[in-house]
Design brief:
216 residues, alpha+beta, Dna Ligase, domain 1, D-amino Acid Aminotransferase, Chain A, domain 1, 6 helices, 29% helix, 32% strand, globular, disordered C terminus
Amino acid sequence: MPVLLGIDALKFLEEEGFPVLRSRLAVTEEEAVEIAREIGFPVTLKISGKKTFHKTDLGGVKTGICEELSLRKAFRELKDLGLEELKGIIVQEEGRGLEIIIGVHSDTNFGKVLMVGQGGIYTDLLGDVAFRLLPLSEKDARSIIDDLSISKIFSSKRKELKRVALEELVMRVAELAIKKSIIEMDLNPVFLLDEAKICDAKIELKGGSYEEDTRS
C-alpha cells in the first residue's frame, strides 16, 4: 500500500484538482534559489523524503525566508541534518491564514471516518477536532465545522476567513477518500483565508501504485 509524503502527496492532490500551496522540489542550492525566484518570496523550505512527515519535530522546516541569502543559509542547514532517504528540499510559497487539519482514517467497526479540527503544531495539544462517518452530506460538512471551538471565528468580524471554502474542501476530501480507496489521509496544515490551500499531506492508498517524482 503506497504511502505518499512530501512533494509526492502534494503532487497527487494537485493532479486531483485540490488547491495546494505552490511547491517544487530542489536537490541543489542553486535549484532552490531559482525556484524561490519563480514562486516569489517569502517562501518556506521543508525536507522531503520517505520518513519525513513530522518535519517540525526533526527541525526540518524553515519559514519566513524573504531573500536569497537567508534561503541559501536555510537550505544548507536542512541538508546538514544528514537525514536518511532525503529526496530533496521543498521550496514552497509561504502559507497564510487560519491553520486547519483535515484527516481520514479507516475504522474496523465504522468504516471510513473524516476528522476536521484546528491544525498546525497545536492539533494534539488543543484537541479541537470533530468527526463524521463517510460518505458525507453537505449538512455534515457544515455541522462538523459547527462542532469546533474555532467555528466562532467565522461569525466574527474576520470576513477574510471564508467558511464556504473550508466546507467545499471538506466535501472534496470526503469524496476523494471514497473515490481513490484512501485508507489514511492527513492534511495538516491547511491554510484558510479567502480560499483554502493545502500545505502538507500524508496519504496512504489501498493497493495500486503511484510513481514518485523526484523532480517536481
